[in-house]
Design brief:
mainly alpha; 2 helices
Length: 65
């Protein structure tokens, strides 16, 4: 990766980790994502799973060099 892109990528990862934390705290999808209908079965579990996935993936972005 180009070293000039590293600060931008790190800031992106920090922002995404923040959205993942919000998903885990509130048990809901972040408002920036497409709304998920309340009648979807397992909606809360999906929200927690997306929060965990965001944490795992975006936490690894800065180390992906």
């Amino acid at each position: 990766m180009n070293r000039t892109l590293q600060p931008a990528l790190s800031l992106f990862a920090i922002g995404m980790v923040g959205l993942g934390i919000l998903a885990l705290i509130y048990g809901d999808f972040a408002l920036v994502w497409q709304p998920v209908a309340p009648w979807i079965p397992g909606r809360t579990i999906l929200a927690y799973m997306s929060g965990v996935l965001i944490q795992l993936r975006c936490g690894a972005i800065p180390q992906s060099q």
